[in-house]
Design brief:
Largest interface: A-B, 24 and 30 residues
Structural class of chain B: alpha/beta
Radius of gyration of chain B: 18 Å
Largest sheet of chain A: none
CATH superfamily of chain B: P-loop containing nucleotide triphosphate hydrolases
CATH topology of chain B: Rossmann fold
Shape of chain A: globular
Distance between the termini of chain A: 42 Å
Distance between the termini of chain B: 32 Å
Structural class of chain A: mainly alpha
Oligomer: heterodimer
Strand content of chain A: under 5%
Number of strands of chain B: 10
């Protein structure tokens, strides 16, 4: 690919939106994922990812646009899962595994009853970052702004809550309100990410960048900053690589995250 | 109930008829006691006696079935800002060893929120309190790299970062070796005398209890006896509390 073709490719509006989308998704995933990883919610993204299949199927029955059904039902599912974790003694991994199985089973049964354009529904498994619309970009920017503002105002409380819910409660922090708000934010982020990166890979955006940052950081704020940066940079680099070699975009971004992770593992091994 | 006049100091904690259930099992049964400002009280009893459950219910970390808890004269749900006056060192502190948090960052989390973004003030306040627990040189260490004893001292520093009226220690010395145990007890005692907070601690070391505590509550779901260490830690009482198989470690005083 020569320079001219490059400029041509990245001057296409859909390509620019896709690169911007990759950066925004990577940054949001890195920030929220930092708390997901440390709060032992690593399977949460995976669970809500699978539940989004059910959400889209329900949406198709109700003839809702997929962004609306994803947003609405993922928030409901997310809160429901947290409620189940809190009210049963089964442990979160068990509950999450049950929800994955339940939502896929229900989704598949619903899917078999749907008539008409079923092929579109399957595209949600892999997603398509090139299909990101202007509205998606506006929503992602909005979500990133809300997330950053929330953190600026509550970061010390969020860190304490992540480290020890007991100490947080004794400091008078409204633990339950914060936990449930976090799940709403996470569900919204997943709802916006799923169509771009797909059910199968969405969890990578939440897990790989923070996991990498944790390998190299001892302090919290550098950890958070590095996770967001790795997310954003993987977004750009992945999109460029996918443009040059004509590779699928979402998987390219995840592949870059994976390479950075392996570098982090090497760093960790050599310095400890 | 012991009247206030005996100690001549205000009560920091009043527990009345507190009952806690774990499923069908009554883990804490009708427990009542009172704690006075500046005093050291130990809760002793065998494993499964409901000691940790009692403490967690007092702090509102688990629900109680009936009874009343007043801290600093207020019921738990009306404590508001007064929560800041209560320090707590949990028994088992399980966390991810790679949690990206340094000693300094953890202690700073106890400070008022306004300190968080002011790195100079934050550093000075934290350093001051780390000196008190002899950890001033470890401030940049990740907490996952600390030994059991060091971690307990960091948690003590977390408690001491703001003025407290009461510090509750749930078996602070579990997972600490014998030397660390004595060091921690001496340090706590020294700081307690300097700053005048009251302590309520669960302990298995009856020798340390009789050395540093003013009062002992013997608990086995119910309070079996309470009073000074001399009164309560008699052989007959201990046998009643712990059962006949007790092996009591007698250290030389």
């Amino acid at each position: 690919m020569n320079n001219l073709e490059w400029i041509e490719l990245f001057s296409l509006p859909f390509m620019q939106r896709a690169v911007l989308g990759g950066i925004l998704l990577g940054t949001l995933g890195g920030i929220l994922g930092s708390f997901v990883v440390l709060r032992q919610l690593s399977m949460y993204g995976n669970t809500l990812g699978h539940a989004s299949f059910l959400a889209v199927v329900i949406g198709a029955f109700l003839q809702l646009p997929s962004i609306l059904s994803l947003t609405l039902f993922l928030v409901i599912f997310g809160l429901g899962v947290l409620y189940l974790i809190d009210t049963t003694n089964l442990g979160s991994d068990t509950i999450l595994a049950i929800i994955v199985a339940g939502s896929v089973a229900l989704g598949m049964i619903g899917f078999s009853f749907l008539e008409g354009y079923r092929g579109n529904l399957l595209s949600i498994l892999f997603g398509d970052i090139l299909a990101i619309s202007n509205i998606d970009i506006i929503l992602l920017v909005g979500l990133l702004v809300v997330t950053v503002l929330c953190l600026l105002f509550t970061l010390p409380e969020q860190i304490l809550l992540t480290f020890s819910p007991d100490l947080a409660q004794l400091k008078g922090i409204p633990v339950q309100i914060y936990r449930y708000s976090f799940i709403i934010l996470l569900s919204l982020t997943l709802a916006l990410s799923i169509r771009a990166v797909g059910i199968l890979l969405v969890n990578a955006f939440l897990i790989i960048p923070p996991a990498t940052a944790r390998l190299v950081c001892d302090q919290f704020i550098p950890f958070l900053g590095l996770a967001a940066t790795i997310g954003a940079v993987s977004g750009i680099v992945g999109m460029i690589l996918s443009g040059i070699w004509d590779l699928p975009s979402g998987p390219s971004i995840v592949l870059v995250q994976l390479v950075v992770f392996l570098v982090g593992v090497g760093w960790n091994q050599s310095s400890h | 109930m012991i009247s206030q006049e005996i100690f001549g100091s205000p009560s920091v904690l009043e527990v009345e008829n507190l009952t806690v259930r774990r499923g069908k099992y009554v883990a804490v049964d009708q427990v009542s006691f009172q704690l006075f400002s500046g005093t050291n009280t130990a809760i002793v009893g065998p494993n499964g006696a409901g000691k940790s459950t009692l403490i967690r219910a007092i702090l509102g970390l688990i629900p109680s079935e009936s009874g009343q808890v007043n801290i600093l004269g207020k019921s738990l749900n009306k404590l508001g800002k007064r929560w800041e006056k209560i320090g707590y060192i949990p028994q088992k502190f399980s966390f991810d060893r790679y949690f990206p948090l340094t000693v300094e960052e953890l202690v700073a989390l106890a400070l008022p929120k306004s300190y968080f973004w002011k790195s100079r003030e934050r550093k000075i306040s934290v350093q001051k309190v780390l000196v008190k627990v002899n950890l001033e040189h470890q401030s940049h260490q990740r907490i996952g790299t600390l030994s059991g004893g060091e971690l307990k001292r960091v948690l003590l520093a977390y408690c001491l970062a703001v003025p407290r009226d009461l510090i509750i220690l749930d078996e602070a010395l579990a997972e600490v070796d014998a030397t660390g145990e004595v060091e921690f007890a001496e340090l706590l005692n020294k700081l307690q005398r300097e700053q005048g907070f009251a302590t309520l601690q669960i302990s298995h070391d009856l020798d340390l209890v009789s050395r540093y505590c003013d009062r002992v509550l013997c608990l086995n779901r119910k309070i079996l006896c309470q009073g000074s260490p001399r009164e309560t830690l008699s052989n007959e009482n201990i046998q009643e509390v712990y059962g006949s198989t007790l092996i009591r470690y007698l250290h030389s005083h």
